[in-house]
Specification:
Layout: H1 6-21, H2 26-50, E1 59-65, E2 72-77, H3 79-98, H4 107-126, H5 130-139, H6 141-151, H7 156-185, H8 190-194, H9 200-217, H10 226-233, H11 236-246, H12 248-261, H13 263-268, H14 270-289, H15 294-313, H16 318-349, H17 360-363, H18 365-379, H19 385-400, H20 402-427, H21 434-437, H22 444-462, H23 465-482, H24 495-504
Antiparallel strand pairs: 1-2
Length: 505
């Protein structure tokens, strides 16, 4: 497999299928999209199997100079990119399955947009040229913009414009910073730039320019307001891929660019990041508590969960960074599953109003069971994927800032409140609507969509090593770069004192 350009193939498969789907009937377009996404899932599993966690940092490297162009076709992955690619190729066939009956209008164009989105997402995580990364990163805006704007809800035009303008505005500053970096370092090669030492004064400006883009993409408070609108108006599969993968591009950007390329600036701006993350955890959790729309509640919960990612990444220690990565993977699965659960009952009753439902555990016990699993994973119940990442992220945050950890823990308590309150109102409570009482339980297609995510959520919770092992060496390399610049934490539980305490025992 090392001689095979497997990463280029993984980008080409959905790209070619997407073009082909445009010229097919609705039924043929659906099957083409499903086959292409399942093929990419198989290729992803082959890459994961062949990836050597103890090997070189960058594996499956491809590099082709494009004549007359400043951009090289340079691809390669490390363990962090591998896990995010696996998340992408795992969720994409589920998105196609979720759209099978829900989308009746312009089906070939819809399937083509999703296939293009998959190609661009894989490109983001594999690109090793700065400008190539930017093309993939910004290109992902277009199919999502079209998905919301054409197949979305009543206010889809407003939501799609807001999504596009917010994310594009921040990225213009990032492009300027990239050109400055290429001019200063004399290369657009991402691995080379990760080892390059920019002057501290320049680092600050470059860090802020990248932050403008990644903070919107995450999204961080206060530039999060596009997300609830986008989720509410997007079709179910659009919400799944938006929450599952597109939000993770901001976290990936911090890991790949902000932290290793600008370590001094990252350390300098830790108070800013922690303050924004702390406000996000508390404020968006309180906003989620009073939501009446299921999608809006889950959207605000996404902002709170992404704050755990930024807390962990900027803790500048192994527990925090590994925890942030696990939160990203877990949130991708769990939030995607929660949006699918909303889609299941929306397809039956065509409303997202929480008050229209109640006591669904009576007539939809299978649905109530799976919804409970994903709710508990979102809360961070031990044994589910949510627990591992949040526990590690909190531990790392505490080592860096006890106040940060206290604020983040408040978010866990509030998260349990709004998620359990949502579940109680949907699955138990009083049945207020005869239509809801008559709804049928999950059919075989819906079981096929939700069961694999349920299995992955439990797998990650019971045996997280499967997911952490490929990333461990890369986290170590990142820490080697960060440690000299790491700010002093306020925790008294230092390694030396822990060792002394164990000696006394």
């Amino acid at each position: 497999m090392t001689d095979l350009p497997i990463l280029s193939i993984m980008i080409a498969v959905p790209l070619v299928a997407g073009v082909l789907a445009l010229f097919l009937s609705a039924s043929a377009a659906r099957w083409t999209a499903l086959i292409a996404t399942l093929t990419n899932l198989a290729l992803g599993i082959a890459v994961w199997t062949a990836f050597d966690p103890a090997g070189a940092q960058w594996q499956f490297v491809e590099r082709v100079g494009l004549a007359g162009s400043p951009i090289d076709w340079a691809l390669g992955i490390d363990g962090i990119a591998l896990m995010l690619i696996m998340l992408s190729v795992f969720l994409m066939p589920i998105c196609i399955g979720a759209s099978w009956r829900a989308i009746e209008k312009r089906v070939p164009e819809y399937m083509s947009a999703f296939l293009l989105m998959e190609a661009l997402m894989i490109g983001v995580f594999t690109a090793q040229d700065l400008l190539l990364f930017y093309i993939f990163f910004e290109g992902g805006l277009i199919p999502m913009y079209l998905t919301i704007g054409i197949w979305g809800g009543v206010e889809r035009i407003k939501a799609s414009y807001k999504f596009f303008l917010y994310t594009l505005a921040g990225s213009v500053l990032m492009l300027i910073a990239m050109l400055v970096m290429i001019h200063t370092a004399g290369t657009s090669d991402i691995p080379a730039l990760m080892a390059y030492d920019f002057a501290p004064g320049l680092q600050w400006w470059l860090w802020l320019a990248f932050f403008a883009s990644f903070a919107v993409k995450m999204p961080m408070w206060p530039v999060h307001t596009w997300l609830p609108d986008a989720h509410v108006q997007a079709p179910t599969a659009g919400s799944v891929i938006l929450a599952g993968v597109l939000l993770k591009m901001g976290g990936y950007g911090f890991i790949r660019f902000s932290l290793p390329m600008f370590p001094d600036a990252s350390a300098h701006f830790v108070p800013l990041v922690f303050t924004m993350s702390g406000i996000a955890v508390v404020y968006t959790s309180l906003v989620a508590l009073v939501q009446r729309d299921m999608k809006k509640l889950i959207a605000y919960s996404s902002v709170a969960h992404m704050a755990f990612v930024t807390f962990g990444l900027f803790a500048f220690n192994r527990q925090g960074i590994e925890g942030a990565l696990m939160v990203m993977l877990s949130h991708g699965l769990v939030s995607g599953a929660l949006f699918l659960c909303v889609g299941v009952i929306y397809d039956r009753l065509h409303t997202r109003e929480i008050d229209r439902y109640g006591a669904l555990s009576d007539n939809m016990p299978g649905y109530a069971l799976l919804f409970m699993l994903f709710t508990m994973a979102s809360v961070g119940l031990p044994g589910t994927s949510g627990f591992v990442g949040e526990f590690l992220a909190l531990t790392g945050t505490y080592r860096a800032s006890s106040w940060g950890a206290i604020t983040a823990t408040t978010g866990i308590i509030l998260g349990a409140a709004y998620m359990l309150y949502l579940y109680w109102r949907i699955a138990y409570g009083t049945q207020r609507n005869a239509d809801a009482a008559a709804m049928k339980d999950l059919d075989s297609r819906e079981w096929l969509l939700l069961a694999p995510i349920a299995a992955a959520v439990l797998w990650m919770g019971v045996y997280p090593e499967s997911f952490m092992k490929p990333m461990r060496a890369d986290v170590g390399r990142l820490l080697t770069r960060l440690t000299p610049a790491a700010p002093a934490g306020d925790s008294h539980l230092t390694a030396g004192k822990l060792a002394t305490a164990s000696d006394h025992e």
